[in-house]
## 1
Amino acid sequence: MPLPFYYKARALGRRGAAWRKVSFGIGLLLAPLVLEGIASVATWLGDVLGVSALGLLGNLSIRQSPPGQLAWWLLSLSGLILLILGFRQLGQPRDRLASARQSWDASRHNLESGTTQSGATPLPDANTPSNKTFWQR
């Protein structure tokens, strides 16, 4: 896991599967760029040094063939999907917390207004004289 993501995982909690998806998704997005950069540098070094074997590495460039472009597209798409799934998985506990708070606020409002969810008035409080047992009177 890259160092910034390691620190972020430590700060926000260890949800290993989600962070692995995010890290792997970023890796898949960057892989075609790194491979293209290696091919370009190898071609340049082959031209400067006069080594034809390094110049041949330029033929391995992703952009020079339709299957390479398809591979670039598939790697980018799968990386983006993994990023979406990872960040969605990281946000799910927050969504659950927000929905729990919303239901808590709604039930609290209903109790303060004196109605229940069914619209009926709530039962009398246990401290009212009519609900006290014989030995509490």
## 2
Amino acid sequence: MATTLVLGGTRSGKTRHARSLLPTGAYTVIDASADGHDHNDGVHGPREDVVTGAEKNVVRTLDVTRSILRSRNPVLVDCLGAWVVGLLDEWQSWDDLTGSLKRVEDATYELAALWADAPFDTVAVSHEVSFSPVAVEPRARVYQETLGRVNAIISEASRRTHVVIAGRILDLSNAPVVR
């Protein structure tokens, strides 16, 4: 089965592309924000974009790894950035970059262990933070650093990695991995 990481900026088309990689209507959406709000936009508004049809099973949780195992269907994880925010909020670790990186890496390596051999097609969406200037504000810096690490770990575990920029898809699946 294929595991795919789809990266991109806001309104790049990344989620639309991710959905196109899964069978229509026969997949589980894991809303990794846990509370159904988009924490990546700074507004914390409802994530109405996650559910586009009644035929989809939507699970709101930070326990992404176990939710993938329980789904027994292809899965769309939307989105790893919201997952990172949810974890950092739950752990109240926004003020500790080193500690946050360690805890998020541990959770991500657990996910990557499953991800590399997922028993069904699984696609994750995430914001590509490496195109942004280095954040100056401490909370933004923790988010940028931890999500960048999550993306690298999941990309390496994925069979495919796509980047969506301005509605165009770049396939990085055969690109060398930085070690």
## 3
Amino acid sequence: MPATELDRRIVMLLVLAALLHIAVAGRMLWPAKPPKAAADPETVQLRWDGGVLAVCSGRDCRVRSDIDHVEPRLAPFFFQPIPVNDADAKLLETIDGIGPHLASEIIRVREQGVVFRSREDLLQVPGIGHKRVRQLESQFSFAGSQ
């Protein structure tokens, strides 16, 4: 006996209802849980809650309203330039155009007592010339010191 168009539509509706039921039941059985604060105090989590960005480490979560002053390792998450005087090698390597060697050179020059106060101070780093300074200047902030 051939299936009619009405029979096909009924079967399709039953399949869709079954899939919807499975999706709803799945959410009731396994609800989405918010991420827990990290047990390790060095681990940082960013949470967006109600239009507010919170920085969480350990059991402590604080809303960040002072976007102008951010820990160096969090600067990229706030779309802020990286403070060249406080950044470690791993953070410097996240900048386009800086690899492990150039990051170590920046750290070495900084350890010699140089405080980068302007883009021209970057010229003291071997491997950074005028062209690279123009490339990097928007990605660095020169505030702060070691």
